[in-house]
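Appendix B. Chain record.
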Amino acid sequence: MKLGFLSAAMLFVASGAMAQHAHSLGSSSETGQSQFAAIAEIVTLLRDDPGTDWAQVDIKALRDHLVDMDNVTTRASVERTVDGMSAAFVVTGDQVVAASIQRMVLAHSPMLQGSSDWAVTAGEIDNGASMLVQVGSDEDLNQVLGLGLFGLMTIGAHHQQHHLMIATGRSPH
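Structure tokens predicted for this chain:
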């Protein structure tokens, strides 16, 4: 399936409008648990797009990614150190969580760098990954420290497009 960012964004807005319309008619638009809601959002986009190549769709891959997101945000431990204009995050967990950490931190670090003026490097370590964020001002350092690892992982508003790419069998990285 070839779906450009603009088409995906238009479909995303349209699905949101449908959910708002359903809500205004008195029916529920909440799909429940967050991973289920993310999958439901992508399924709606795919079903509404007549160009969807169903042979390429892989909702299990999206589900696996959502499990990684959950493992990192709910089960990982993060230690932060600051040295001058740099913040280092060491993210660790048990064997299952460590694998999720490595996939998530290594994949999202380039996205963070591309969406900011910061130098971002990441690497695998035993039981997880590390991320170093180097900034150029006290204001940026305060932002990085305030957001912490979990806030930094969200920068770039790329997740809906990212999830659509995973679900359609394309590499988002």
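Further analysis of this model is presented in Appendix C.
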